[in-house]
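Hi there,

I know you've been waiting on this one. I reran it after we fixed the sequence typo, so this is the corrected version. Both the input and the resulting structure follow.
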Amino acid sequence: MPYIDTETTHRFPWFVRMFFWNQRRRYGAVLEPARLWGRSPKVFATLALLYGALDRRGSPIEPALRSLVTVRISQINWCDFCVDINSATVLKRGVAEAKLAALSAYPNSDLFTGREKAALDYAEAVTRSERQTDQVQIDHLRRYFDDDAIIELTALIAFQNLSSKFNAALGVEPQGFCRTPAATEKGGPVAVPCD
């Protein structure tokens, strides 16, 4: 249970309930973060629209890579909920379990392409407070991404940091989307069944 509970009797506006209906259809349940964000309806709607824009079919970042980036950021930010749901998405997008299991050790793994490693390095540099991006890193990214794709990758990284830090700060627990060896930075695997 998260640190702040949303009563089952809480009355959400109609447009938030529409998002909930879609989540029930897609995931089989309303996501706990949505119930929390939904308590600030205008922020929630804006956030949902931003996520939809970042996770669209026409993105210059392929779906599997977007999901790998979101899982890695979730691991760093200790968001077990995000590791859970994003790991399930990674697997649905065709990434092998072995690759997902190796994600925290990607720099030394032959399972990851140069493009994936460049994106994950960048995600780590943006996410970790003790690191900083620089021109050398941007130039390395340009070997794999054009400038518009780098901007979109940056937006995805910023969004996932917002989402995972929000969920971790409020103690949102996994909802049972995936049993994977993708561990958070604090160490333990998310131990819930994967569809």
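Quick highlight: The chain has a mean pLDDT of 91.

Best,
R. S.
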